[in-house]
Amino acid sequence: MTGMEQQAAHAVAALTTQSIFGFSPMVVGTAVLLGVYGFIIWDRINQTIVALMGATVMLLLGLINHELAMQGVDLNTLFLLIGMMVIVGMMQKTGVFQFVAIVCAKLARGEPAKILALLTLITAVFSAFLDNVTTIMLIVPITLLLAEQLKLSPYPFVFAQIFASNIGGTATLIGDPPNILLGSAVGLSFNDFLMNTGPAVLVILAVFMLVMHLLWGRKMVTSDHAKAHLVKYNPWEALQDKVLLYKSLFVLALVIVGFMAGHSGGLGAGSVALMGAALLLLLDCYPHHSKEQSHRVHEAFGKVEWDTIFFFIGLFIIVAAVEQTGLLNMLAGQLMALTGGDMERTAYYILWGSALPSAFINNIPFVATMIPLIQSMADAFGGPEAIKPLWWALSLGACLGGNGTLVGASANVMAAAYASRAGHSISFMKFMALALPLMLLTIAISHVYMWLAYF
Length: 455
Prior knowledge:
single chain
């Protein structure tokens, strides 16, 4: 055991015996965790500030020391987020996303029902291979413009894209932040997600697109003049920088191949994403002089959502502190007692038990808390390999559960903000009235899928 590990072990042993304000560390840690959740749900203080202050309180109260806090910060997740944000931010400058949206409109010949279906499908695919928050940031502003040209309410389009972004994001390691957390913490590869959550996502997406057509698509009507005006757009005029586009697509293809093959070669997804970002920066900057290179590098890193990165850092420290108090081990034991140690029943509890809370609290902190809880059940079920179905239950439950309300996932909040900015505010209750039943339908499909695939 190294000196640092010995120090950490002594810190944990001391923590279990000390008292804070007359209360056990577990009680205090639970109170801080619930307080952080409460402030995130309240949404009056930025969630990044809440997470960092929660981490600060944990450190000041001695619930975790500096060494354990640093060990708790998952650099693989942070590197993956930063690398993909740089790559997608640079791609955004090329106009390729506007190009895709205009091509969809032309393929649909301006027919609203076809545009709704194509944009839903494109959003799901982009969300699987970029990430759902970035996809929403790129696609929703274009969708609002298309709806305006068609003289239609943008609500059905935005609603469908919120759902599609979370459905598509469930399919891969990089599609949704909860999956990024899961993959990094448990060592699940890009291919693992594709093969295990991917089939369920295909069925769920098909069912969802059918429901959208029956609810809205077949009833949408617009004038021939609006259709003609939309179809006349030239998609090639949307492309601003074709050279950068070719470089970006080349690097993105390499990164996706790296995600698929890197796990077996000892390369984590975070390393692959950072290498991809570095290569794209090199390809973009090398023809220019040093001053222009500096400008381009600053611009690229300006696209990184640093508030999200620091939200994750604070969250990692909070969860690590709670884990040290023994709370998660206790909850794992209670869950085992509730399910009688039955794997199938435990998976269904996790699936539904993840979906419902994730609809009302952001699914990222929920998953961050659940990961060590499930890890602590591994020995009882026969080791890490035996509990893999539980990880797929958590992924499906948390990612799809985020569709239940406007605050369930970061992509939802982002889409609602864009719609509000364009003068089309989305009511929390109106969204939930349809979204919650639809979300429960997707979880029911996931339940059947898990029974067929694993039990």
